[in-house]
Design goal:
- The structure is a single chain.
- By secondary structure, the chain is mostly helical.
- It contains 6 helices and 2 strands.
- It has a two-stranded antiparallel ribbon.
- The chain is elongated.
- The protein starts with 10 loop residues before the first helix and ends in an 18-residue tail after the last strand.
- The structure holds heme C.
Length: 161
């Protein structure tokens, strides 16, 4: 499975099975959950009809909880919503960002949802975004990632696989 997922519901199986992330199998994770001291009881509380935690229940539970995890609202978004002010340095940064970055990293999610080559690499070990539902316009383009709360992440851009 590719490292970039295009829908939130596909994020957990990708994170579980991707060799660069948990490098597990869904079956092994289910075995661990079913043997765990607390999870079987918690799942039973959420799904009274359940005897064993199975893939559909696990994914359903994850799909329901993930959208509830709200990351902090970035100062730029608060500013755009008219609910906060920026320091002089932040305002200059926003101007620079609008001038140099916002053609691709645009809108509230800081992505135009398109594909582009950010020009950092000249050698490409893999086809970017394999299996992407959108035809790749040119070789070595990559999905423009959201930069929302980028400072809270530690993994940037593609890594050779
Ligand atoms: C031509 C379109 C384009 C422009 C303009 C652009 N980017 Fe990007 N950016 C991308 C693409 C495509 C990627 C993904 C590259 C990859 O995964 O190899 C990316 C990745 C990133 C990432 C890594 C994010 C992550 O989660 O992996 C950061 C940070 C970033 N850009 C910041 C900027 C900044 C700051 C500017 C302006 C100085 C900028 N970008 C201008 C297309 C663009």
């Amino acid at each position: 499975m590719g490292r970039r997922v295009i829908h939130l519901d596909f994020a957990p199986p990708n994170a579980i099975e991707n060799p660069l992330e948990m490098d597990e199998t869904l079956e092994a994770v289910l075995r661990k959950l079913n043997r765990h001291g607390s999870y079987p009881g918690l799942f039973k509380k959420a799904f009274p009809e359940l005897d064993t935690i199975t893939t559909p229940y696990l994914l359903y539970a994850l799909s329901n909880t993930r959208p509830c995890w709200f990351p902090p609202v970035p100062p730029t978004i608060r500013y755009q919503l008219g609910k906060g002010s920026l320091t002089e340095e932040e305002r200059q940064g926003l101007d620079l960002f609008k001038a140099k970055c916002a053609t691709c990293h645009s809108g509230a999610l800081f992505t135009n949802q398109d594909y582009a080559n950010n020009g950092l690499d000249t050698v490409f070990p893999d086809r970017a975004a394999p299996g992407s539902p959108k035809a790749m316009p040119t070789w070595a383009n990559s999905k423009v990632p959201s930069l929302r709360n980028v400072a809270h992440r530690t993994l940037y851009a593609r890594r050779p696989v």
